[in-house]
Amino acid sequence: MANPALRIVIADDEPITRMDLKEFLEERGYSVLGEATDGFDAIEMCKKIKPDLVLMDIKMPLLDGLSAARILQQEQIGATIVLLTAYSEREFIDSAKEIGVSGYLVKPIDEKSIIPCIELAVARSREMQKLQKDIAKVEERLESRSIIEKAKGKIMERNGLCEQEAYDFIRKLSLTKNLSMRRVAEIILQAGG
């Protein structure tokens, strides 16, 4: 049932909570690669280890879990974040949603709930990361196409070529110079007149 490849960091200022979670997860085939006692340690550990999942308490000294989660998301560390907390107030839940946290478990944690929660959170997080990458690729292609179109227009105007001839000119230059068509188009546009 457990995903043996799942690499986990536990961030909680309570040693007993960390120990219990680590033992529970490792007994089920997960790999707990690190333990942090505050948000600062959690961030630095995640940068080094690059875990799949961070189980993090909200209330920790120095830097709380919500702030640490926000920084992990902003720095695109890529880990799925599940908050473990004694707080179920709406303000904490809303903050967690706004940050992009994937799961929220209220302490004391029911052992029957934790595995489904983390498995689903990681699966959804990976789907979202894949979608974000796909969107970035599409945006990149559209931007490249737009730049190439502008360069074609400039070549058509400057050299009196038809659209296909201008495209062929950029393509041939791309092959000759071993540059992408986008890079050739960027240079043409930067060259001016």
Structural summary, described in words:
- The chain has helices at 15-27, 39-49, 65-74, 90-99, 111-159, 163-177, 181-191, and strands at 7-11, 31-36, 53-57, 80-85, 103-106.
- It is α/β, with parallel strands linked by helices.
- The chain folds into 2 domains: 7-109, 3-Layer(aba) Sandwich (Rossmann fold), CATH 3.40.50.2300; 140-191, Arc Repressor Mutant, subunit A (Orthogonal Bundle), CATH 1.10.10.
- A 5-stranded parallel β-sheet has the order 2-1-3-4-5, with helices on both faces.
- The radius of gyration is 25 Å and the shape is elongated.
The chain-level mean pLDDT equals 89
Task: Please identify which CATH superfamily of the largest domain we are dealing with.
Answer: Response regulator
Number of strands: 5
Summed up, the domain count is 2
Order of neighbouring strands in the sheet with most strands: 2-1-3-4-5
Primary descriptors:
Rossmann fold; RNA binding; single chain; Stage 0 sporulation protein A homolog; 7 helices; 13% strand; 193 residues; alpha/beta; Sig_transdc_resp-reg_antiterm; Arc Repressor Mutant, subunit A; 2 domains; phosphoprotein
Secondary structure layout:
Layout (H helix, E strand, L loop, with lengths): L6 E5 L3 H13 L3 E6 L2 H11 L3 E5 L7 H10 L5 E6 L4 H10 L3 E4 L4 H49 L3 H15 L3 H11 L2
Parallel strand pairs: 1-2, 1-3, 3-4, 4-5
Helix pairs in contact: 2-3, 3-4, 5-6, 5-7, 6-7
Structure, briefly:
The protein is of the alpha/beta class and 193 residues long.
